Amino acid sequence: MRRRIRRWPLIALWTVTLLLGAWVFLWPHPEAPIGVERRLVEKGYTPQERLTIRLTLDPGEVLALSVEPYRIDAIDYYGNPVYQLLSDHGYGGEDLTALSILDHYTALNLTQFEVMSSPQRILFDPYFLWTRFERYMALAEELPLASGRTLVERINTDRDFAYYTQIKPALGEGLSVLVNKYYALPSDFEPQPLVQASSCGQPTLQQAAAMAYDALCTAVKAQGLDLGSSSAYRSYARQAELYSYYVTTDGQAAADTYSARPGHSEHQTGLTVDLNAGDGSIGLFVNTGTYRWVSVNSWRYGFILRFPEDKTDITGYMFEPWHYRYVGIETATTLHELGITYDEYAVWIHESKRIP
User: Fold this and answer.
1) Catalytic residue among 320, 330, 344, 351
2) CATH number at residue 185
3) Is 320 a catalytic residue?
Protein backbone atom coordinates (compact mmCIF):
# COMPACT_ATOMS: atom_id res chain seq x y z
CA MET A 1 0.00 0.00 0.00
CA ARG A 2 1.49 3.34 -1.18
CA ARG A 3 2.07 5.94 1.45
CA ARG A 4 0.07 9.14 0.94
CA ILE A 5 2.19 12.31 0.77
CA ARG A 6 0.86 15.27 2.67
CA ARG A 7 0.86 18.22 0.29
CA TRP A 8 -0.80 20.89 2.35
CA PRO A 9 2.43 21.92 4.22
CA LEU A 10 4.15 22.56 0.87
CA ILE A 11 1.20 24.50 -0.46
CA ALA A 12 1.09 26.58 2.69
CA LEU A 13 4.82 27.28 2.46
CA TRP A 14 4.53 28.40 -1.16
CA THR A 15 1.61 30.64 -0.33
CA VAL A 16 3.41 32.32 2.57
CA THR A 17 6.51 32.82 0.42
CA LEU A 18 4.52 34.46 -2.38
CA LEU A 19 2.69 36.72 0.07
CA LEU A 20 5.92 37.78 1.76
CA GLY A 21 7.56 38.46 -1.60
CA ALA A 22 4.63 40.56 -2.72
CA TRP A 23 4.64 42.46 0.57
CA VAL A 24 8.38 43.17 0.36
CA PHE A 25 8.10 44.34 -3.24
CA LEU A 26 4.95 46.41 -2.81
CA TRP A 27 5.82 47.89 0.58
CA PRO A 28 9.63 47.96 0.62
CA HIS A 29 9.86 51.25 2.45
CA PRO A 30 8.09 52.15 5.73
CA GLU A 31 7.25 55.57 4.29
CA ALA A 32 5.48 54.07 1.27
CA PRO A 33 2.39 52.27 2.60
CA ILE A 34 0.57 52.40 -0.71
CA GLY A 35 3.28 50.36 -2.41
CA VAL A 36 5.55 50.83 -5.37
CA GLU A 37 3.05 49.59 -7.94
CA ARG A 38 0.35 52.00 -6.87
CA ARG A 39 2.81 54.87 -6.82
CA LEU A 40 3.89 54.08 -10.39
CA VAL A 41 0.23 54.16 -11.40
CA GLU A 42 -0.24 57.50 -9.67
CA LYS A 43 2.82 58.92 -11.42
CA GLY A 44 1.17 58.18 -14.75
CA TYR A 45 3.04 55.12 -15.96
CA THR A 46 1.01 52.98 -18.34
CA PRO A 47 0.60 49.22 -17.80
CA GLN A 48 3.12 48.56 -20.59
CA GLU A 49 5.60 51.01 -19.05
CA ARG A 50 5.19 49.43 -15.61
CA LEU A 51 5.78 45.97 -17.06
CA THR A 52 8.92 47.16 -18.84
CA ILE A 53 10.13 48.84 -15.65
CA ARG A 54 9.72 45.65 -13.64
CA LEU A 55 11.43 43.52 -16.28
CA THR A 56 14.30 45.94 -16.83
CA LEU A 57 15.18 47.52 -13.48
CA ASP A 58 16.11 45.94 -10.18
CA PRO A 59 13.87 46.52 -7.11
CA GLY A 60 16.04 49.35 -5.77
CA GLU A 61 15.86 51.21 -9.06
CA VAL A 62 12.10 50.68 -9.24
CA LEU A 63 11.74 52.10 -5.72
CA ALA A 64 13.84 55.15 -6.63
CA LEU A 65 11.77 55.65 -9.76
CA SER A 66 8.50 55.46 -7.85
CA VAL A 67 9.28 58.47 -5.67
CA GLU A 68 10.33 60.72 -8.57
CA PRO A 69 8.05 62.64 -10.94
CA TYR A 70 7.07 60.81 -14.11
CA ARG A 71 9.84 60.77 -16.71
CA ILE A 72 9.47 59.44 -20.21
CA ASP A 73 13.08 58.25 -20.21
CA ALA A 74 12.77 56.33 -16.96
CA ILE A 75 14.20 53.09 -18.32
CA ASP A 76 17.23 54.81 -19.81
CA TYR A 77 17.79 56.98 -16.74
CA TYR A 78 17.66 54.21 -14.16
CA GLY A 79 18.93 51.39 -16.36
CA ASN A 80 21.96 53.14 -17.92
CA PRO A 81 24.52 54.66 -15.52
CA VAL A 82 26.05 56.76 -18.32
CA TYR A 83 22.65 58.18 -19.26
CA GLN A 84 21.96 59.02 -15.61
CA LEU A 85 25.39 60.59 -15.11
CA LEU A 86 25.06 62.86 -18.13
CA SER A 87 21.42 63.68 -17.44
CA ASP A 88 22.29 64.80 -13.92
CA HIS A 89 25.11 66.91 -15.38
CA GLY A 90 22.61 68.77 -17.55
CA TYR A 91 22.48 67.00 -20.91
CA GLY A 92 19.12 66.21 -22.43
CA GLY A 93 17.19 65.53 -25.62
CA GLU A 94 18.97 64.23 -28.70
CA ASP A 95 22.39 65.01 -27.23
CA LEU A 96 21.72 62.82 -24.19
CA THR A 97 20.41 59.98 -26.34
CA ALA A 98 23.48 60.10 -28.56
CA LEU A 99 25.91 60.37 -25.65
CA SER A 100 24.36 57.49 -23.70
CA ILE A 101 26.41 54.99 -25.73
CA LEU A 102 29.68 56.39 -24.37
CA ASP A 103 31.78 54.27 -22.06
CA HIS A 104 31.65 55.33 -18.41
CA TYR A 105 35.22 56.69 -18.41
CA THR A 106 34.52 59.01 -21.34
CA ALA A 107 31.22 60.15 -19.85
CA LEU A 108 32.88 60.88 -16.53
CA ASN A 109 35.52 62.97 -18.29
CA LEU A 110 32.79 64.86 -20.11
CA THR A 111 31.18 65.88 -16.83
CA GLN A 112 34.37 67.72 -15.90
CA PHE A 113 33.42 70.39 -18.43
CA GLU A 114 30.44 72.68 -18.89
CA VAL A 115 27.51 71.40 -20.92
CA MET A 116 27.89 72.16 -24.63
CA SER A 117 25.66 71.71 -27.66
CA SER A 118 26.14 68.47 -29.62
CA PRO A 119 29.42 67.35 -28.03
CA GLN A 120 29.00 63.99 -29.77
CA ARG A 121 30.10 65.54 -33.09
CA ILE A 122 33.49 66.10 -31.45
CA LEU A 123 33.71 63.05 -29.16
CA PHE A 124 32.96 60.62 -31.98
CA ASP A 125 35.67 61.98 -34.28
CA PRO A 126 38.52 59.44 -34.51
CA TYR A 127 41.15 62.10 -33.80
CA PHE A 128 39.44 63.67 -30.78
CA LEU A 129 41.84 64.69 -27.99
CA TRP A 130 40.79 65.34 -24.40
CA THR A 131 43.76 67.68 -24.02
CA ARG A 132 42.09 70.08 -26.46
CA PHE A 133 38.44 69.73 -25.43
CA GLU A 134 37.99 73.27 -24.13
CA ARG A 135 39.40 74.62 -27.38
CA TYR A 136 36.94 72.47 -29.32
CA MET A 137 34.15 73.92 -27.20
CA ALA A 138 35.25 77.50 -27.84
CA LEU A 139 35.44 76.95 -31.59
CA ALA A 140 32.08 75.14 -31.60
CA GLU A 141 30.45 78.22 -30.09
CA GLU A 142 32.06 80.34 -32.79
CA LEU A 143 31.08 77.90 -35.56
CA PRO A 144 27.84 76.23 -34.36
CA LEU A 145 27.10 74.60 -37.73
CA ALA A 146 30.58 73.19 -38.30
CA SER A 147 31.01 69.43 -38.44
CA GLY A 148 32.95 67.59 -35.79
CA ARG A 149 35.63 66.77 -38.36
CA THR A 150 36.10 70.46 -39.14
CA LEU A 151 36.32 71.41 -35.47
CA VAL A 152 38.72 68.66 -34.48
CA GLU A 153 40.95 69.11 -37.51
CA ARG A 154 41.23 72.85 -37.01
CA ILE A 155 42.05 72.61 -33.30
CA ASN A 156 44.42 69.66 -33.68
CA THR A 157 46.41 71.66 -36.23
CA ASP A 158 46.37 74.74 -33.94
CA ARG A 159 44.52 76.89 -36.45
CA ASP A 160 42.49 78.56 -33.75
CA PHE A 161 45.66 80.67 -33.48
CA ALA A 162 47.22 82.81 -36.20
CA TYR A 163 50.25 81.34 -37.95
CA TYR A 164 53.56 81.94 -36.19
CA THR A 165 51.86 82.67 -32.88
CA GLN A 166 51.78 80.37 -29.84
CA ILE A 167 55.06 78.90 -31.10
CA LYS A 168 56.29 75.76 -29.31
CA PRO A 169 59.45 73.63 -29.62
CA ALA A 170 59.41 71.09 -32.44
CA LEU A 171 57.10 68.20 -31.50
CA GLY A 172 58.69 64.78 -31.13
CA GLU A 173 62.14 63.79 -32.30
CA GLY A 174 63.95 61.67 -34.85
CA LEU A 175 61.90 60.64 -37.86
CA SER A 176 58.64 61.70 -36.16
CA VAL A 177 59.57 65.33 -35.49
CA LEU A 178 56.92 67.89 -36.42
CA VAL A 179 58.08 71.26 -37.68
CA ASN A 180 55.57 73.75 -39.05
CA LYS A 181 54.26 77.28 -38.45
CA TYR A 182 53.56 76.47 -34.79
CA TYR A 183 56.47 74.16 -33.95
CA ALA A 184 60.06 75.34 -34.39
CA LEU A 185 63.62 74.01 -34.25
CA PRO A 186 66.33 75.96 -32.40
CA SER A 187 68.84 77.91 -34.47
CA ASP A 188 71.68 75.56 -33.53
CA PHE A 189 69.86 72.35 -34.44
CA GLU A 190 71.72 70.19 -36.94
CA PRO A 191 70.67 66.56 -37.41
CA GLN A 192 73.29 63.85 -37.15
CA PRO A 193 74.46 62.01 -39.05
CA LEU A 194 73.99 63.88 -42.33
CA VAL A 195 75.08 61.96 -45.43
CA GLN A 196 74.79 62.26 -49.17
CA ALA A 197 72.51 59.90 -51.02
CA SER A 198 74.38 57.94 -53.68
CA SER A 199 72.06 58.60 -56.61
CA CYS A 200 69.63 60.96 -58.36
CA GLY A 201 71.37 64.23 -57.46
CA GLN A 202 72.90 62.95 -54.22
CA PRO A 203 70.92 65.15 -51.79
CA THR A 204 72.24 65.62 -48.25
CA LEU A 205 69.85 64.02 -45.76
CA GLN A 206 69.75 62.11 -42.51
CA GLN A 207 71.11 58.64 -43.08
CA ALA A 208 67.76 56.80 -42.96
CA ALA A 209 66.21 59.30 -45.37
CA ALA A 210 69.21 59.10 -47.73
CA MET A 211 68.94 55.31 -47.92
CA ALA A 212 65.20 55.53 -48.59
CA TYR A 213 65.83 58.17 -51.26
CA ASP A 214 68.24 55.85 -53.08
CA ALA A 215 65.58 53.12 -53.02
CA LEU A 216 63.03 55.57 -54.42
CA CYS A 217 65.48 56.61 -57.12
CA THR A 218 65.99 53.00 -58.17
CA ALA A 219 62.23 52.45 -58.38
CA VAL A 220 61.69 55.61 -60.44
CA LYS A 221 64.41 54.62 -62.92
CA ALA A 222 62.87 51.15 -63.21
CA GLN A 223 59.82 52.92 -64.65
CA GLY A 224 61.98 54.52 -67.33
CA LEU A 225 61.76 57.91 -65.60
CA ASP A 226 64.32 60.39 -64.27
CA LEU A 227 64.59 61.78 -60.74
CA GLY A 228 66.68 64.57 -59.31
CA SER A 229 66.85 66.75 -56.20
CA SER A 230 66.89 70.55 -56.09
CA SER A 231 67.31 71.01 -52.35
CA ALA A 232 67.50 68.88 -49.21
CA TYR A 233 69.12 69.76 -45.88
CA ARG A 234 69.34 73.48 -45.11
CA SER A 235 70.80 75.07 -42.02
CA TYR A 236 68.92 77.64 -39.96
CA ALA A 237 71.20 80.36 -41.34
CA ARG A 238 70.60 79.34 -44.96
CA GLN A 239 66.84 79.29 -44.42
CA ALA A 240 67.04 82.77 -42.89
CA GLU A 241 68.85 84.02 -46.02
CA LEU A 242 66.28 82.51 -48.37
CA TYR A 243 63.28 83.74 -46.40
CA SER A 244 64.71 87.27 -46.19
CA TYR A 245 65.22 87.30 -49.96
CA TYR A 246 61.65 86.15 -50.64
CA VAL A 247 60.23 88.76 -48.27
CA THR A 248 62.24 91.48 -49.99
CA THR A 249 61.10 90.25 -53.40
CA ASP A 250 57.42 89.42 -52.82
CA GLY A 251 56.53 90.79 -49.39
CA GLN A 252 56.07 88.81 -46.18
CA ALA A 253 52.44 87.78 -46.74
CA ALA A 254 53.25 86.17 -50.09
CA ALA A 255 56.56 84.72 -48.89
CA ASP A 256 54.80 82.98 -46.00
CA THR A 257 52.72 80.95 -48.46
CA TYR A 258 55.74 79.25 -50.03
CA SER A 259 58.73 79.73 -47.72
CA ALA A 260 59.16 78.84 -44.07
CA ARG A 261 60.53 81.28 -41.56
CA PRO A 262 63.89 80.22 -40.09
CA GLY A 263 63.45 77.46 -37.51
CA HIS A 264 60.15 76.42 -39.08
CA SER A 265 61.54 74.72 -42.19
CA GLU A 266 61.39 70.95 -42.57
CA HIS A 267 64.58 71.18 -44.60
CA GLN A 268 66.45 71.87 -41.35
CA THR A 269 65.43 68.40 -40.11
CA GLY A 270 67.43 66.69 -42.85
CA LEU A 271 64.36 64.63 -43.69
CA THR A 272 63.01 66.65 -46.62
CA VAL A 273 63.93 66.81 -50.27
CA ASP A 274 62.64 68.94 -53.15
CA LEU A 275 62.34 66.69 -56.20
CA ASN A 276 62.62 67.32 -59.91
CA ALA A 277 62.44 65.12 -62.97
CA GLY A 278 66.16 65.19 -63.58
CA ASP A 279 66.07 68.59 -65.24
CA GLY A 280 66.64 70.70 -62.11
CA SER A 281 63.21 72.38 -62.32
CA ILE A 282 60.73 72.13 -59.46
CA GLY A 283 58.22 74.48 -61.05
CA LEU A 284 57.47 72.10 -63.92
CA PHE A 285 57.71 68.94 -61.83
CA VAL A 286 53.94 68.61 -61.45
CA ASN A 287 53.59 68.10 -65.23
CA THR A 288 56.01 65.19 -65.43
CA GLY A 289 55.59 61.45 -65.43
CA THR A 290 58.01 61.32 -62.52
CA TYR A 291 55.67 63.39 -60.38
CA ARG A 292 52.68 61.29 -61.34
CA TRP A 293 54.48 58.10 -60.35
CA VAL A 294 56.10 59.47 -57.18
CA SER A 295 52.89 61.09 -55.92
CA VAL A 296 51.18 57.69 -56.04
CA ASN A 297 54.03 55.50 -54.80
CA SER A 298 56.26 57.59 -52.50
CA TRP A 299 54.64 56.19 -49.34
CA ARG A 300 55.98 52.75 -50.20
CA TYR A 301 59.47 54.16 -49.58
CA GLY A 302 58.61 56.19 -46.48
CA PHE A 303 58.06 59.58 -48.13
CA ILE A 304 54.92 61.72 -48.04
CA LEU A 305 53.85 64.69 -50.15
CA ARG A 306 54.01 67.21 -47.35
CA PHE A 307 51.95 70.07 -48.77
CA PRO A 308 49.07 68.56 -50.80
CA GLU A 309 46.86 70.63 -53.06
CA ASP A 310 43.69 69.99 -51.05
CA LYS A 311 45.27 70.72 -47.63
CA THR A 312 46.65 74.24 -48.10
CA ASP A 313 44.29 75.62 -45.45
CA ILE A 314 45.82 73.21 -42.93
CA THR A 315 49.50 73.35 -43.84
CA GLY A 316 49.52 77.10 -44.52
CA TYR A 317 51.59 76.57 -47.66
CA MET A 318 50.72 76.60 -51.33
CA PHE A 319 50.64 73.27 -53.14
CA GLU A 320 54.25 72.07 -53.46
CA PRO A 321 54.27 68.95 -55.64
CA TRP A 322 58.08 68.72 -55.29
CA HIS A 323 58.32 68.80 -51.46
CA TYR A 324 58.61 65.30 -49.94
CA ARG A 325 59.21 64.47 -46.30
CA TYR A 326 60.63 61.19 -45.03
CA VAL A 327 58.67 59.76 -42.05
CA GLY A 328 59.44 56.05 -42.41
CA ILE A 329 57.49 53.38 -44.25
CA GLU A 330 55.15 52.52 -41.36
CA THR A 331 54.03 56.11 -40.75
CA ALA A 332 53.86 56.90 -44.47
CA THR A 333 51.64 53.86 -45.00
CA THR A 334 49.35 54.93 -42.15
CA LEU A 335 49.04 58.46 -43.54
CA HIS A 336 48.33 57.06 -47.00
CA GLU A 337 45.47 55.01 -45.55
CA LEU A 338 44.06 57.74 -43.30
CA GLY A 339 44.28 60.64 -45.74
CA ILE A 340 45.12 63.25 -43.10
CA THR A 341 48.04 65.67 -42.94
CA TYR A 342 51.17 64.99 -40.97
CA ASP A 343 50.39 68.15 -38.99
CA GLU A 344 47.27 66.54 -37.52
CA TYR A 345 48.66 63.02 -37.28
CA ALA A 346 51.78 63.98 -35.32
CA VAL A 347 49.80 65.97 -32.74
CA TRP A 348 47.23 63.17 -32.38
CA ILE A 349 49.93 60.53 -31.84
CA HIS A 350 51.72 62.72 -29.30
CA GLU A 351 48.65 63.70 -27.25
CA SER A 352 46.20 60.82 -27.68
CA LYS A 353 47.35 58.94 -24.58
CA ARG A 354 47.19 61.95 -22.30
CA ILE A 355 44.16 62.37 -20.04
CA PRO A 356 42.39 65.67 -19.23
Assistant:
1) 320
2) 3.30.1380.10
3) yes
